[in-house]
Design goal:
The protein is mainly alpha-helical and 195 residues long. It is built from ten helices and no strands. The protein folds into two domains: 95 residues, Rna Polymerase Sigma Factor, Chain: A (Orthogonal Bundle), CATH 1.10.1740.10; 77 residues, Arc Repressor Mutant, subunit A (Orthogonal Bundle), CATH 1.10.10. The longest helix is centred in the N-terminal third of the chain and has 23 residues.
Length: 195
């Protein structure tokens, strides 16, 4: 029941946006910006580049909203644009992205309340996982990000990727095994203490 209400509110906002109401778009952007930014950061690995890619993605969403037919959920449609934009940005700017800031994808609020140890271990985990995901096949890394980072279910991942549910399940299973092997290769016995 709650989900239907949320969808009705979203449908109303989308109709307003299509009629030119920019304040309605600001509400949609506000709703999805944090999760989209986390996704962008996990793909690109650099806060500034992720912000740029996300801004570009939201511009694409705004200008292409007339093409949104509602066959999939709006969030799935939006995440697909964010993902495609981020992977394009990553390919385009990969040589320019420098890992000079060890906390490059954490917000100021996250950093403010962490001790040095918290920052160090959180950052170390993030860097290791990002590094391993970047070594994996595109579809495996993408599905892991969608399933674990965005917490999308199989049906939602189908909408975002266009993959069949059987492919998603098999790829996720293979991806988990590959992730574990790559982490073991990188960390050895330290893997248990890290997670």
């Amino acid at each position: 029941m709650r989900k239907k209400k949320r969808n009705k509110e979203e449908e109303t906002l989308i109709k307003k946006i299509k009629r030119g109401d920019t304040s309605a778009f600001a509400q949609i952007a506000e709703k999805y910006k944090d999760v989209s930014f986390s996704l962008a950061c996990s793909i690109i690995g650099d806060k500034a580049a992720a912000e740029d890619a996300l801004q570009e993605a939201f511009i694409k969403v705004y200008y292409n909203l007339a093409k949104f037919r509602g066959e999939a959920s709006f969030s799935s449609w939006l995440y697909r644009i964010v993902i495609n934009t981020c992977y394009s940005a990553k390919r385009k700017y990969s040589k320019e992205i420098i890992d000079s800031d060890p906390y490059r994808c954490q917000s100021e609020d996250q950093l403010k309340y962490q001790t040095y140890e918290d920052k160090y271990f959180t950052n170390e985990r993030t860097q290791i996982i990002d590094s391993v995901l970047n070594q994996m096949k595109y579809d495996e890394a993408l599905l892991l990000r969608l399933y674990y980072l965005l917490e999308l279910n199989i049906k939602e991942i189908e909408e975002v990727t266009g993959y069949k549910s059987s492919k998603i399940k098999v790829t996720l299973l293979r991806a988990r095994k590959n992730l574990k092997q790559l982490l073991k290769k990188s960390l050895g016995n330290e893997i248990e203490s890290l997670f």
